[in-house]
Structure formats: C-alpha cells, structure tokens
Amino acid sequence: MKTWPFSHRTRILAVDDEVGFTRVLQLAAVQYDIRTENDPRHAIEAATEFHPDLILMDRFMAKMSGDCLAKTFEAHPTLHHIPIAFLTASVPCDADGHYCAHLDGRPVLMKPVSIEQIDQCVRECVKR
C-alpha cells in the first residue's frame, strides 16, 4: 500500500546527461528517493510518473538545455509547482561578473556538489 504523499522521503528527480554524475548522486544521497533521467527529453514523463518534491537539473545538456526544460516544466499543467534547482559546472555570473547563487529565481548548485549543498537546497526549496 502506498503511503505517498502523506509520509515519504523527499523525492528528487535528477536530470543530467552525465551518467556518472547521476550514479554518484544516487549512491551518495541515500537519505532521498532519487530518480535519474539522463535524457532531458524524457524528464517530463519521468516527473509525471515519479511525483518529485524537487528537480535537480543540469543547465547545459546536449539534447535540451536546462533553461528550456525548466520553461517546459513551468508551462506544464500538473508539474509547474515543482521547485527546480540548477546544477552547473560553469559559474553563472551577473552583468557585473559576480557569482549568482540564484538564476531566474532558482538555486544554482556548482558541480561538484556536496551532500550538504543538496540538503540545504532541499530545506530551501521543499515546503512540507
């Protein structure tokens, strides 16, 4: 019998085209239920099936950018409410060259990301 959504561990959908990164994330972040999707074109379907509390999404993927995918989630009738945090290996900067901790109102986590950073992001983004 499913108890979700009444009591469950935080569900994170990790969308990143780097298979090695998503494997390490699954092994390291054992306190979360993590589903990975390495093809961003399948992320909407994965989110519809998985019902994540948070989406961690790479900004720069070969088949679709994270920015474009985030806009697709925003426009989706049943998934638009799910918070998104960007993962990136390139430093996002504002017009003055200062590091941006948020982009379009979303948290930005720099790769390599630590479990502590993911925990902080979950506390910031997931409201229970």
TrEMBL record:
GO biological process, one term: phosphorelay signal transduction system
Entry-linked SUPFAM superfamilies: CheY-like
Keywords for this protein: Phosphoprotein
Keyword flag NADP: no
Residues the record lists as 4-aspartylphosphate modifications: 58
Alphabetized PROSITE patterns for the sequence: RESPONSE_REGULATORY (PS50110)
Residue ranges constituting the Response regulatory domain according to the UniProt record: 11-126
A Pfam family the protein falls into: Response_reg
Transmembrane segments: none
Name of this chain's protein: Response regulator receiver protein
Organism: Chthoniobacter flavus Ellin428
Source taxonomy: Bacteria, Pseudomonadati, Verrucomicrobiota, Spartobacteria, Chthoniobacterales
